[in-house]
Amino acid sequence: TGSINLSYKLDESYTPQIISIRAGTTYHDLQEVKLVNMAQPEGWTTIRLVDEGAEPFRTNFIQIAILTNHLSGRDTHVRQVKVYGPTKTVAATLKIPPFESVDFTM
What we know:
The chain is about 10% helix and about 40% strand. The protein is built from three helices and six strands; from the N terminus they run E-H-E-E-E-E-E-H-H. The protein starts with a strand and ends with a helix. The protein has a three-stranded antiparallel sheet. It has a three-stranded antiparallel sheet with strand order 3-2-5, with no helix packed on it. It is mainly beta.
């Protein structure tokens, strides 16, 4: 999941309209994950890269490509981008069994 902060009211022709999200291990093997068409966005817009309940994918490289701007603008203005990934505990990552005895919980 990712979020992008845009303001059509302030930026007008500088605001992205069609955005392509691509992922891969390097620049040379990028594949489009999501194509988003935005109609006069204002504030934070959340972009889900996988369907609800689906397993998140692993990638080393994410590209956000601005394909077109509103009013056929040539430059673009993106205020901020956030990329979120799944959270895992250290114990789950390292496959350490949970400590349930009283001696280990103190």
